[in-house]
Prior knowledge:
Layout: E1 2-9, E2 19-26, E3 31-35, H1 42-49, E4 57-62, E5 65-66, H2 71-76, E6 78-81, H3 93-103, H4 108-121, H5 137-149, E7 155-159, H6 167-182, E8 186-191, H7 194-200, E9 203-208, E10 211-217, H8 218-225, H9 229-236
Parallel strand pairs: 3-8, 3-9, 6-7, 7-8
Antiparallel strand pairs: 1-2, 1-4, 4-5, 9-10
Amino acid sequence: MIRLYNVSKTYAKANAKAVDDLTLEINSGEIFGFLGPNGAGKSTTIKMLTGILTPDSGTIEIDGINIAENPLRAKALIGFVPDNHEMYETLKGTEYLKFIGTMYGVTGDTLKSRIDKYADMFEMTDALPNLIGSYSHGMKQKLSVIAALVHDPKVWVLDEPLTGLDPQSAFQLKQMMRKFADEGNTVFFSSHVIDVVEKVCDRIAIINRGKLVAVDTLENIRSDNKVSLESLFLTITSDGESK
Ligand SMILES: Nc1ncnc2c1ncn2[C@@H]1O[C@H](COP(=O)(O)OP(=O)(O)OP(=O)(O)O)[C@@H](O)[C@H]1O
Ligand SMILES: [Mg+2]
């Protein structure tokens, strides 16, 4: 479960709020899609709810734990897949996963069996013994997904997770999100690809210029507006030209 209450953030020297008074509740068992044009505030929101950035005001709770008051306990519950894949290029895939697992307190056979399971799912078994520096963009993305899961998080946060994945891996990832949510966990992911959001999300929010402009189930959004999600998205974000 993720809760954000009246969360705002302005970057130094910026004249507008990157995130403006955002309140959202995302339940366990839910895949929640966070949609918005470039520069809308998606990554800033995600960085705040994973504890990378501190909000100027407002409160964030992960499974009832306030991230400002108990950052380590809150972060231990989160698996995060960032939108960039700056990784330790001189480590091998296996070394990286062991390093991440150990940091989260997962070791030995538990760690090994989780690495083996996810490597098999994403067809990364043969690549793991190689240096990360030799990986393609998609392989780094898959490694990042595996690294976010080795500590068995309750909340999975992904920033533009399908970018760069081939169709098989994208399908696999969408299936994994569904399974993870069906097990009672929470998935929060950002995207500007409407098709993906339409296919996998239980509920969506649309953010534009830092402000929440819609949040509901897809069915309700569609029936209230009698238009496709794409036309709705284009209409309500039409003043938010790309930066
Ligand atoms: N480090 C930063 N310093 C200053 N301004 C920033 C910084 N990061 C983001 N911004 C600004 O904050 C706003 C929100 O950016 P953010 O990265 O959260 O958008 P986004 O929705 O993730 O966009 P995209 O779809 O392009 O990834 C934008 O106006 C952006 O220019
Ligand atoms: Mg972003």
